[in-house]
Predict the 3D structure of the following.
Amino acid sequence: MTEEPINLDRRRGADDQAATDIRRLRVEVEMNQDSLRKRRNEFERFLVAAPSRNWFEATEKARYVFGLFSSDVTNSNDSRKQRLINSVLSDFDRLLDETPPHHDNDR
């Protein structure tokens, strides 16, 4: 018996190795999706935990929600809705730039 583990990957044929690589990548992607789903749920709980204290916080919440809808709109190739979302996000940027800076007690 040997002390070193046997590298089975070197003993597999090309087709078997490709299948193994695909399985490993699939598992990795599923784990990443699960981690992302948990982080997204945590973030969404944070967003709804308290009302926004200022316009900046409110627009950040809205940006997140628009981002959720935007991916659906992009996948459906609905350019009218995509332009509308982009227009509102541009308005947020413009209006926030025109708003006087908020004080630390506003945060």
Summary: The chain has two domains: 9-49, 51-107. DSSP finds three helices and no strands in the chain. The helical segments are 14-49, 55-76, 79-98. The mean pLDDT is 84.
